[in-house]
Amino acid sequence: MAQHNPQTIDELRGIISDACAGGGKLEITGGGTRVAFGAPNRAADQLSLKSFSGIIEYDPAELVLTAQAGTALAELNEAVAARGQGFAFEPFGAASSTIGGVIAAGVAGARRVSAGSARDHLLGFKGVSGRGEFFNAGSKVVKNVTGYDLPKLVCGSWGRLAALTEVTLKVLPRPPERLTLLWRGLADEAGFALMRAAMGQPVDVAAAAHLPGQATLIRLDGFGPSVAARAAYLETSLASHGVPERLNEAEAAPLWAKAREGEDLPVEPPLWRLSLPPRQALTAIAPLLALGGHYVADWAGGLIWLALNGHEDEIRRQAAAAGGHATLVRAPEEMRARVPALHPQAPGIEALSRRVRRAFDPLGVFETNRFLDETNAD
Amino acid sequence: MSLKMPLPDQRVLARRDEIIAALRLIVPGEGVIDRPAELRAYETDGLTAYRQPPMVAVLPETVEQVAAVLRYCHRHGVKVVPRGSGTSLSGGALPLADAVLLAMGKFNKVLEVDYEDRLAVVQPGVTNLAITKAVEGEGFYYAPDPSSQIACSIGGNVAENSGGVHCLKYGLTTNNVLGVQLVTMDGEILRSGGKALDPAGLDLLGIIVGSEGLLGVVTEVTVRILPKPETARALLIGFPTVESAGQCVADTIAAGIIPAGMEMMDKPAIHAAEAFVNAGYPLDVEALLIVELDGPAVECDHLTGEVEAIARKNGAATLRIARDDAERATFWAGRKAAFPAVGRISADYLCMDGTIPRAKLPHVLQRMRELSAQYGLGVANVFHAGDGNLHPLILYDASKPGDLERAEEFGADILRLCVEVGGVLTGEHGVGVEKRDLMPAMFSEDDLRQQQRLKCAFDPDSLLNPGKVFPTLHRCAELGRMHVHHGALPFPELPRF
Prior knowledge:
The complex is a heterodimer. By secondary structure, chain A is α+β, with helices and mostly antiparallel strands. Chain A has helices at residues 9-22, 73-81, 99-105, 112-115, 150-154, 188-199, 224-237, 249-261, 278-290, 312-321, 333-338, 347-360; strands at residues 3-4, 26-29, 45-48, 55-59, 64-68, 85-86, 122-129, 134-138, 162-170, 172-173, 177-184, 207-211, 215-222, 245-247, 271-275, 294-298, 303-307, 325-330. A five-stranded antiparallel beta sheet of chain A has the order 4-5-9-7-8. In chain A, helix 9 packs antiparallel against helix 10 (312-321). The longest helix of chain A has 14 residues, at 9-22. Chain A is globular, with a radius of gyration of 21 Å. Chain B is 35% helix and 19% strand. Chain B has helices at 10-14, 16-26, 36-39, 63-76, 128-135, 154-160, 167-170, 204-208, 242-254, 267-277, 297-313, 325-336, 338-345, 361-375, 403-420, 439-442, 445-458, 476-480, and strands at 32-33, 56-58, 79-83, 99-103, 110-114, 119-122, 140-141, 177-183, 189-193, 217-224, 226-227, 231-239, 261-266, 287-295, 318-321, 348-351, 379-384, 389-396. Chain B has five domains: 10-103, Uridine Diphospho-n-acetylenolpyruvylglucosamine Reductase, domain 2, CATH 3.30.43.10; 110-227, Uridine Diphospho-n-acetylenolpyruvylglucosamine Reductase, domain 3 (2-Layer Sandwich); 231-339, Alpha-Beta Plaits (2-Layer Sandwich), CATH 3.30.70.2190; 346-438, Alpha-Beta Plaits; 445-480, no CATH class. The chains are: A alpha+beta, B alpha+beta.
């Protein structure tokens, strides 16, 4: 399979139009950190957007940053941190991760539960559709309702709508203090109840996670005096769960990293990511744990990382019954070849989603069968 | 009126009686309104310059009725205009002479509140404020708070992606909605989003919110509710110049402070508001800022001190800190009444809604003064200063021939100016019919066609709320065409290698 590495928007348009004309397939890549997501052996040329790199515009006072989509996430994090700011959705990735990849995969960290996801922070983008047309969507200001909100749609679209060349993101002041309250040894029920109780208090909890058998974490972000007052409030109102330890940012970081991607879970079984209504989460996963599953919970219980061999139908059945869904994140090739990475949805939504994709990519240039939901584009 | 809407389809008008009879079979009793005197109640929304009674109004009570009405209209080629409370400021619910007006007011129940997962499931006709009322007893509230919140419906908020004074900190409607039930034009009932945070596949919810009633009819909404902050404090700060007020806003954000609300008014707006509600606003200043901080008391105290210092450094002429909630409410009373206050000093006004990069404010206000002189029409400005969302109120008199047209041209010039300095046509009111013809100032033909193709994925016959948002109606077949024949390359002008 060929590897394309366009340097200009015209070259990118040319590659996509050639694929249109020749019936070719293109798989868009950024840092290439998520190629093992979805079905293997995709018959597609690689279309790398790595050359579209660099910050175009960053005005801290306007809370807005525009960068080329192939810019490394690390470079952006560094640039905004230097001005005391950050991305509130706490995107994360490997050393080579690009912002375009973060957007396409809809990545968000622990603060997603309070600050929203990539979709809540992408203000605008430019890109080339599957028709080979260059287009612009959204804007470069923080408040805009002009036209359809296409930036929401490209977040988590996995490169199936357009090749992003430029993105504009909202940035926010970085909280001067981050304090983690840590309760040790709470049973699962108690840990989840604690997270729900904390989220319901008027203390603006930034993040909440539960590492079974180890720790239940509540994070408070903000100005020093405020964080101290809120921590004291929570210690009192949650006193029935015991007295928590207070961890500073550096002390707490390794624990939050475990919740973020389940890095402590056994590596051999397939890894699943369940998005669930927090109150239903434990009920949904109880039968899966009985089958030998291991888990960690982030987003106050709304995100479950589950490591479990086999039982893919049962995992999806339980997630759906609870009102959520299950994404297959990591698995052997054999399994990825037969189990769709994304949770199949109701037929009406699947059909509408397909029509939406065709609205951007009528010939299916970006359909590489990675998601096992397209036989052939029409 | 200067606005051109799609020409009524005479074949549909000729079948009016038959259509009404069919609708009566779906929605019995009082739910179908066809008498001209009663239809007049629906002839306009918050953009009162435009009026057009619908062919018929239907008030369904169940999702099955909504689906049946849409299925019937789809099959018979009848256009449909959805309506919530009819408070749109951009004409989003303006009826069409040959269309069914689908009024969702009877969907007025709060279906479920889940305090543990902090969400509420409500019907679309529930008012914005009623959601807060339903949950405030337990210490919760629904954050987006458009000024019309006592009247506007959550379904309308979803259609328009409504904002409010608190959206710099708490986001627009789109950031506070978890899921919807939606009926598409062909009568299919779908769910997008729900009680979980992330979508399973494409984020269709993300485009449904803010789609101005063009993609489907929302029949149920799941919203996020938040614990009500313990305390709120407000500062009222007068400045000798707009520039110094603007610098105070920039310095506040640079200090890492995101206030719950940060509102600016210019001199004409201050005077109109003060004359109306006697809020105690200083009259000898050029700009007035209201800064509201919320959170734990200790945080409010800390940040109030910080903002006060920043304001004084920027030469604040007057500065008051509300001593209690009653005084805080007084500070807000003038701002919240700014529109009716301006209504008292002028026969009519047009409310604009552009967003600009905040640094461009002095330039934009200066240009606005020049345009005001050029058009011979007054303008008062209220401004969501934190996020750069401007609301210039253009004063005119509809009874004077040519005044409305001049006001509209003035407004269009302001919005073009917003785009020119890097901003947008609308920050929270929507495009509707009002800004429809200005869309090419912000988007290229390719940009607009791509958006319209999305519309085609939901409503290929363009029956749902046509004539809104897009300046040119393209047929979906034309939009979908790809010029690829027998291996011939599209875009032959592009370099090949």
